[in-house]
Design a protein that fits this description.
10 strands, 52% helix, 20% strand, alpha+beta, 5-stranded antiparallel β-sheet
């Protein structure tokens, strides 16, 4: 007489399902471990929390994992404290090697000057933001090489193919004449922007004003070109000098109306108006 009281095939299937669950969990664990990055401390903490919640069904492996995770968490906290200093040093060395002006501006939040941009490092997200005229232009990973490559890319976009101060000032004066109700009136810079954008277009756009022929010209480009004019010292056209009116504390609250002109090394000032006098 048989002593088997249950279905052995059903038990085997149940065991197989448990093995499949463990296999899926281990696969998820392996993927999570590969995704851990010391530069991304916020993501790192999230990954660790996920690992803590995994149910492997293997007590010995779970205990070993908990021991390793405790060490990783302690290491991650140490990384958070030391990363800004290590990053600043490596970025400075890379900038000096590339002959790019560099300066550490603030420790909290970690901010640097990478000529002509301000660089904001977000160690929680593992990204660096390139900022010009108080506007974020792009992001890069927290790797000096990647940051310098992105910096070169953004600088080329701002520089354009060529820049002639005299020709640009003449276009700016023409844009001012179109915008000013009367001679010597002050005009808000944001009112000059669409005029100078139109005057900066190519002959192809004038012949066929389509989207494909339009060359973008926005606030950051205006701020960059004005800063270039001032640095070059080309401010007089037909006996009239370009003057910029600084923004008051009240007007700086409305960031869409004012323009921040960089003066180098993180310094600069908000301006509201322009005039030729």
């Amino acid at each position: 007489m048989s002593t088997v009281t249950s279905d052995p095939l059903a038990e085997l299937h149940t065991f197989g399902e448990r093995l499949e669950k463990v296999q899926r969990t281990l696969k998820e664990l392996g993927k999570a471990l590969k995704e851990l990055r010391p530069q991304e401390t916020r993501k790192l903490r999230g990954r660790l929390e996920r690992l803590h919640k995994l149910d492997l069904g293997l007590p010995e492996l779970e205990q070993e994992l908990k021991t390793v995770l405790a060490r990783v968490e302690a290491w991650a906290k140490e990384q958070e404290r030391s990363l800004p200093l290590q990053f600043g040093r490596s970025l400075k060395e890379a900038a000096e090697e590339a002959r790019v002006g560099f300066l550490s501006l603030t420790a909290e939040p970690p901010t640097y000057f990478l000529d002509p941009f301000t660089l904001e490092a977000d160690f929680g997200k593992g990204i660096a933001r390139l900022v010009y005229a108080r506007t974020t232009l792009s992001e890069a990973s927290l790797e000096p090489k990647a940051i310098l490559q992105e910096r070169d890319k953004m600088l080329q976009a701002l520089e354009g193919k060529s820049f002639d101060p005299e020709s640009y000032l003449a276009r700016l004066y023409q844009a001012y004449e179109r915008s000013a109700p009367r001679e010597q009136d002050r005009v808000e810079l944001i009112d000059l922007l669409p005029e100078i954008a139109l005057l900066s277009q190519s002959d192809d756009f004038r012949k066929d004003p389509t989207r494909e022929n339009y060359k973008p010209y926005g606030r950051v480009r205006l701020a960059y070109d004005l800063a270039r004019l001032r640095k070059n010292g080309t401010l007089t056209h037909q006996g009239k000098r370009l003057t910029l009116g600084t923004a008051t504390i009240g007007t700086t609250k409305h960031k869409d109306r004012v323009l921040f002109l960089e003066e180098g090394q993180g310094r600069g000032q908000f301006y509201l108006t322009a005039a030729f006098v």
